[in-house]
């Protein structure tokens, strides 16, 4: 994470990048419903859930790229993009853990990192700093997890495809979790330096 503030280039709400982020947010409950249908007596809808996740990954890449290329970086977009990322991760963790595809310890490790980040955001706000911007390391962690989750969902089956998905899914999950915590620890270090340098803290 980075604390440096990205210059807002537009105050418009209905930009293409913002619409993509909003669509990703709408997809969160849809994805969770699809993945949990078998747990409540419904048919398995993993294929549709994978399509929603694929759309999320593509739109996550496009909204940031288009915002920079078309000079449509906005205050709303800076809130929507990381919010959509975290909600997708949270909903996927809930769904895959409920179905016992993800172990509880991995879910706990990722949720603990999110809790740590929330605490750091609260500290920043008390010292008058804006919420953090997602940097390359944080994005790399998110991309790894976004690859890991659909592969692990695909591994909940039988045959060579499920076996292959499990191998690559756990590889991406390991890298994603490591990078997620690495980005979080670097962010804690940055927050600590800012707080120590803040005259109001004396």
Task: Tell me about this structure.
The structure is a single chain. This protein has 202 residues and is mainly alpha-helical. It is built from 6 helices and no strands. The protein starts with 15 loop residues before the first helix and ends in a 5-residue tail after the last helix.
How many DSSP-defined strands? Answer: 0
Treating each run of at least 4 consecutive H or I residues as one helix, how many helices?
6
Class of secondary structure makeup: mainly alpha
Name the beta content range: under 5%
Largest sheet: none
Radius of gyration: 18 Å
Poorly predicted segments: 1-6
End-to-end distance: 25 Å
**Helix fraction by DSSP (H/I, runs of at least 4):** over 70%
Shape: globular
Note the topology.
Blueprint: H1 16-36, H2 46-69, H3 75-98, H4 104-126, H5 136-154, H6 160-197
Helix pairs in contact: 1-2, 1-3, 2-5, 3-4, 3-5, 4-6, 5-6
Kindly summarize this structure in a few lines.
Helices cover 74% and strands 0% of the residues.
Question: Which key terms come to mind for this protein?
Answer:
202 residues; 6 helices; single chain; globular; mainly alpha
């Amino acid at each position: 994470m980075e604390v440096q503030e990205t210059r807002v280039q537009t105050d418009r709400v209905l930009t293409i990048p913002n619409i993509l982020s909003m669509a990703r947010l709408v997809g969160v409950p849809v994805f969770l419903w699809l993945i949990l249908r078998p747990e409540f007596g419904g048919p398995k809808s993993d294929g549709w859930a994978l399509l929603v996740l694929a759309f999320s990954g593509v739109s996550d890449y496009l909204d940031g790229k288009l915002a920079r290329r078309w000079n449509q970086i906005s205050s709303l977009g800076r809130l929507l993009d990381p919010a959509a990322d975290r909600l997708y991760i949270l909903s996927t963790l809930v769904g895959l853990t409920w179905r016992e595809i993800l172990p509880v310890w991995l879910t706990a490790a990722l949720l603990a990192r999110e809790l740590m980040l929330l605490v750091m955001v609260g500290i920043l706000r008390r010292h008058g700093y804006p919420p953090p911007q997602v940097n390359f390391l944080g994005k790399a962690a998110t991309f790894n997890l976004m690859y890991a989750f659909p592969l692990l969902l695909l591994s909940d089956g039988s045959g060579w495809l499920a076996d292959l998905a499990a191998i690559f899914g756990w590889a991406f999950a390991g890298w994603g979790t490591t990078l997620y915590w690495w980005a979080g620890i670097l962010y804690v270090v940055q927050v600590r330096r800012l707080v120590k340098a803040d005259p109001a803290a004396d």
